[in-house]
Amino acid sequence: MADIYAILADINNGLGAILAECGFTAVIPSGVEKGELPAVTEAGRITIEYKGENKALKLEHFNNKLSLLGAQKEGEILASDFSQISLSLLDSETADHKDVKYIVNEFSETLVETFGTKTQKPTKSKLPTPVSKAAAKSGSVSYDPNTLANRFTAIYPELREEYKANCEKYGQFLPEDFFVNHGTPVVLATIKENNPTKMRKLFNLLNDIYEDGTNETQSLIAVTILGAMDNDQEMLANCVDYMCDDMTGPVINVNKYLASRSGKGAKMRLENPPKYKPQKDKKKKGMMSMLGQ
Fold first, then answer.
1. Is 172 helix (H, G, I), strand (E, B) or coil?
2. For the segment 185-233, what is each residue's pLDDT rounded down to a tens digit?
3. Are 4 and 62 spatial neighbours (Cβ–Cβ below 8 Å)?
4. Cα separations (Å) of 81 from 76, 77, 161, 209?
């Protein structure tokens, strides 16, 4: 798929039934014929609006992101009344039917949670809330492993159900279980393929999360995910031009350590994480802190 309007038409059609159930109809801009995508394009931003009784919605595509914005208010609804209720990556150059299906499912759940009637229920339990980019950049809070996984599955939507299943099974998100069994293998496949577009998308995410992440999150990226390259020099060379400066040194050192004789035990534990046990009020030492000793 390369035509963003065709992609948005598929998403609009996919949301049709749930929009109707939630009491929304599309706002048809002037000049748009019946059956055409009811979109307005201004300065590269594509907007589709919907209205209901004391409520309104917008789908906005800009800068390879698709936002779902909502407002509920008696009387006239102004632009300042809208707030973002869901967000997904949507690059027209790389998007396919899996991305469309993921966005339709994700936005449908959000619509039911936000605007659904009492008889409607979301198909899945609510997922842990990710840390917003604004909060992380302000320094008020750092990215956690759940935020990494949440945004990771926007790049790899085929893993979204595995992420949800992880949260539902344990009542919380278990990052080691998800990444060892599902996330890390697709990262290694991307690195081996070394497609520039896919590598930029992957490392833009990893760099952003790493730079403003907690120690646990940084360890997850450098050890559990990128440490699984097993000191493969060709794979490491593929990554060097994409990794941020803060991440390059730790990733190289982790790979050297795990490939060494002294790192064999740590490598075995990484490949075979312990079974889940309910958390106790106890701090666990990560491998990154052990490497720093």
1. coil
2. 999 999 999 999 999 999 999 999 999 999 999 999 999 999 999 999 9
3. no
4. 10, 6, 32, 30
Residues 6+ apart with CB under 8 A from 129: none
Helix (H, G, I), strand (E, B) or coil at 286: coil
Rounded to an integer, what distance in angstroms lies between the CA atom of residue 282 and that of residue 81? Answer: 43
The pTM (predicted TM-score) of the whole model is 0.57
Decide the pairing of beta strands 55-62 and 39-42: unpaired
More confident residue, 97 or 10: 10
Task: Indicate the length of the chain as a whole number.
Answer: 293
Q: Where are the alpha helices (DSSP H) in the chain?
A: 4-14, 16-21, 97-115, 133-138, 145-155, 160-170, 175-178, 184-193, 196-211, 215-219, 233-240, 245-259, 264-271, 287-291
Between residues 106 and 243, which one has the greater pLDDT?
A: 243
